[in-house]
Amino acid sequence: MASLQRGASAELWQALVHEAGERAGCALDESRESYLVFVLLRHQGDNHLLARTQALEWLHAQSLAGRAREESLRDVGDRCLLIAGLYPALAERRRVNVRYFIDMGRSAYQGVAEAGRSAYATLFAQLADTYGELVCTLRAVRPDITGLSIDYAQLARLTPAPGRH
Fold first, then answer.
1. Could you give the CA distance from residue 43 to residue 21 in angstroms, rounded to a whole number?
2. Under DSSP, is residue 158 helix (H, G, I), strand (E, B) or coil?
3. 80 pLDDT exceeds 50?
4. Structurally, how many domains does the chain consist of?
5. pLDDT for the residue 109
């Protein structure tokens, strides 16, 4: 029964992500779309997502080595992606611009790319380079976000902050 529910969840997220990308003009290729679905599935039951302080998690990841560092950075990148895309009001409540989460998440994914194995590194380099498009797609998944004026084209074009990749 659990695998049936997981399969149904995956299909639902896949459809939502695909439709959102098209609606926002940020259609993702298969690898990025699949990764975004993976992130949503992995974190859909994370009751502590919004309670974590991502900067502290990022700093902790920097103190690790090898696979532990990669996984920790990936987690930070994933959570920043979800916050920037699905919960941008959280940034406002914490008195930071959503760009803060975008920059930190992009930096985390770039760290995974630099430390990772070749296929893993290639995927995370691509995710870091197109982080704005991932956020854009997630924003379109939640058209109910009220009070936010969203320029999807501008969001998708976000470039890394100076000195970051």
1. 20
2. coil
3. yes
4. 1
5. 96
